[in-house]
Design goal:
about 45% helix, alpha/beta, four-stranded antiparallel sheet, six-stranded parallel sheet, about 280 residues
């Protein structure tokens, strides 16, 4: 779970950056409109989607003009249909037009993540598996995308390199063995989750003996995954990983693994088609 204070700090900073790159020294086209002109508008979706990004949209309007009023007709995590109104806004026409692109960029991108996650989660809803995101996120948008993942019904893996151990081949080689790496991790940061990446059944057995909290099965065959589930017997959580997509996902989930990590949840995203319609001035 993302700490609320960390998410809020990231939200404010990334929204400010999105406005700096779009507005720059000022919106010269919006300046054509009389400053006192007030109007209202609505944002609709042109396609079916799962919504995420409400807080980012609110923050865009807050930073552009705190006087703009935003009224949401949906909540993050809601599934919406084409032409459905997502939110209404009212305020100075200049402010609405200046904020429009940045606000929609956030909403369309994060809703794209949530929609993809919802699709994947529905595919394996008949199993007990949890789908995890990865660190394959757009630079600077890590926490925003991981928030959107949860709106779509999937789950967060570690947020970064600081909140959990993921011991891979090079870490094992440097430490001497899986057992030594796991022991060192427990000594360095007691209580932090320790996961070990394995590529063979022998490495899986070593990780189980070492007491790893979670063991990643990297590109295991379906047969080996089923054998790993039987071998672990609940003593360590098992995470399937490596090249898993919508076509292979169901069979992997049905092996009985606890988690499946999928980079595509955050890196292969198609934005949702949205539109802002302003009322007559």
């Amino acid at each position: 779970m993302i700490p609320p204070e960390l998410l809020r700090q990231s939200l404010v900073e990334t929204v400010a950056q999105s406005l700096r790159e779009d507005v720059g020294s000022g919106d010269i086209t919006a300046a054509l409109i009389p400053e006192e002109r007030v109007t209202s508008g609505q944002v609709i979706t042109r396609e079916t989607a799962v919504i995420a990004g409400q807080h980012w949209v609110n923050e865009v309007f807050r930073q552009v003009d705190p006087g703009v009023q935003v009224q949401w007709h949906v909540r993050d995590g809601d599934r919406v249909q084409p032409n459905q109104v997502l939110f209404s806004c009212e305020g100075r026409a200049r402010s609405l037009l200046t904020a429009e692109r940045a606000a929609l960029n956030w909403l369309q991108s994060l809703s794209g993540v949530a929609t993809t996650c919802h699709h994947y989660a529905q595919l394996v809803a008949h199993t007990g598996v949890k789908l995890l995101d990865t660190r394959k996120t757009l630079p600077g948008l890590r926490l925003a995308q991981k928030y959107a993942v949860t709106c779509g019904g999937c789950f967060n893996h570690r947020l970064g390199l600081w909140d959990a151990f993921l011991i891979k081949e090079n870490h094992i080689a440097a430490c001497g063995s899986i057992a030594q790496a796991v022991q060192a991790a427990h000594q360095l940061a007691p209580g932090r989750p320790v996961e070990v990446e394995t590529e063979t059944m022998d490495e899986l057995k070593e990780a189980l003996a070492a007491g790893a909290d979670t063991i990643m099965l990297d590109e295991f065959s379906l047969e080996d995954m089923r054998a790993a589930v039987a071998l672990a017997n609940g003593t360590s959580k098992l995470e399937a990983s490596g090249g898993i997509n919508a076509e292979t996902l169901i069979k992997v989930a049905e092996t009985g693994v606890d988690y499946i990590s999928i980079g595509a949840l955050t890196k292969d995203i198609k934005a949702i088609d949205l539109s802002m319609r302003l009322n007559a001035f």
